[in-house]
């Protein structure tokens, strides 16, 4: 994929080990190409949300928390579906 705008600016920030692990885990969960791409995307999305939605800063935190919960519930639903599909053949085998 060609880069339309050169990325020639660097942002440096410090994270605690816990913050880094949370960022890394979320990056892997979302299938990001790498940690930098994920962080850039998240930062730009946060800026866009603030510009589009306005409101107090804490409201953005609430929106992100709800979005995170939505993701977790989605993963749980997928896992439950997998477990149910695995259980059905076992139940049928027990009847035979």
**Low-confidence segments:** none
Distance between the termini: 55 Å
Note the beta-strand portion: under 5%
Q: Which structural class best describes the helix and strand composition?
A: mainly alpha
Count every helix, treating DSSP H or I runs of 4 or more residues as helices.
3
Q: What is the ordering of alpha helices and beta strands? A: HHH
User: Could you estimate the helical fraction of the residues in percent?
Assistant: over 70%
Radius of gyration: 20 Å
Largest sheet: none
Number of domains as seen in the coordinates: 2
The coarse silhouette is elongated
The total strand number stands at 0
**Residue-averaged pLDDT, rounded?**
81
Topology, element by element:
Blueprint: H1 17-29, H2 35-53, H3 57-95
Task: Tell me about this structure.
The protein is mainly alpha-helical. The protein has two domains: 19-54; 56-96. The chain has three helices and no strands. It has helices at residues 17-29, 35-53, 57-95. The longest helix is centred in the last third of the chain and has 39 residues, at 57-95. The radius of gyration is 20 Å and the shape is elongated. It starts with 16 loop residues before the first helix and ends with a helix. The model has no long low-confidence stretch (mean pLDDT 81).
